[in-house]
Amino acid sequence: MTVALIARNTFREATRDRVLAGVVIAGVLLILATQPLSPLALGEGQRLTIDLGLTGISFFGLLIVLLVGTSLVAKEIERRTIFNLLSRPISRPAYLVGKWLGLSGALWVVAGVLGLALWLLLVARGLASHGPAVLEAAYLAGLELTVVTALAVLFSALSTPVLSALYTLGFYCVGQWSWDLREFAHHFPAALGSTLAVVADVVPNLPIFNMRALAAHGEVTTLFHLGLATVYAVVYSGCVLGLAAAAFESRDFK
Amino acid sequence: MTAARLSPQAGRMLVALGLAALLGVGADQLAAIASRRLPRPHPLEELSYYPSGQRLEPATLGHAETVADLAWLRAVQYYGEHSRTDMRFANLYHVFDILTSLSPHFIPAYVFGSFALAQEGNEFGHAEALMLKGIEANPTSGRLAFELGFLYYVRPGGRELRHAGEYFERAARLPDGPTSSRRFAAYVRQNAGDLAVAWALWRDVAQNSDNRYLREMAEREMRRIRRAQRTGRAELARNRVTTPVVLFERNH
For the range B228-231, what are the long-range contacts, defined as Cβ-Cβ under 8 Å and sequence gap of 24 or more? Predict the structure, then answer.
């Protein structure tokens, strides 16, 4: 109940933020901008539209996480509103989970709006059959943003907004390379290889959420892929929120 | 006793940490399954619809070399992946073309790309075009001239001795040309088509190249030449593109 209440307030606060509106507009403009670029792609304009549109969902979602998510907790501490909240019978883990759910909800809305804009553009170009692929790719992008939001909440509970943004961005970049790191780990000397393997295990394995190459051809992925990605996003976010809760419990606000 | 002494806050912290550890192990297992069973995203193939490296260059916002480095990592990975599986290198030339346009002085990219295209991809035309593009961008590179001579000398399907000799001689005249260039130029002039020369060229790569894939390629070629020499049919190694099955069956 408490979690739902905090989530609703966080969602409302995030959706009223001008940053979110600006980012959605920029995302729609990017999707539209693929049209004048299409002739340059030598017959591959459709791929360009889908690929850039889906990249836009991930990129602009990440931007919202960095601009809004990383100051979620810090802002409340700075404004001292957190004292009012935590003096009530609200547990700290519930507070963090509520924050995460609220912002994740706002990001799902963004992913949905941009996905819809992309699909409408494809329909206008006579490519409505690509809808399922775009829907799946947007769903996976939403899951990716949910995981990154959990990381932003963790860092936001531990550090300043600027450092939180840098840490989140760092994890995002290394997370995108996690499968490459696993691959490279086999080719390096044992010590370095083991370190790389550990890094690849710790960072979020974001390639799981990437089906842009498939969607660019209008191909859908398997149910196994979607299921695995969903379970992974829930489990990994749970792990990160567990760490965030432990860290937040140890913080002294006196 | 210990549990009784824990404060509620410490208790909650321990529960949260325990939960995080448990879920962390679960996430790790899922990630391992995913990396084994899900199709890999192919960013390299996503590059293939860019018209050329020149058009891509402005999009790198002044970081063309860095993007070329990333493309190089992807290209090596792409080669490794396909050389282990289907031996199909459909986008290899395009990728090396983009990467060398972003970084025209990236000599190892010309060398590796050309040999991979010629020896494994059966695309000598593209291999030659890539190397000539390198020579044009780096006219004073003795290393590149030497490698082009080498490429002509070991051309699958038939050596191009005149061109090989020409580029070995050119490498010998340039300051950073390998010291062996003059020797190979002489070999080519005197012993046209001698397998021992090809073997010596590949041995040099096998012993001195920093590139693991090139070393493996050289070792494969050296084994092939030795087999051809043992059977007394040198033309089998020279024309291996059309006769690999014959070579394979005779030696097993």
Answer: B228/B195, B229/B195
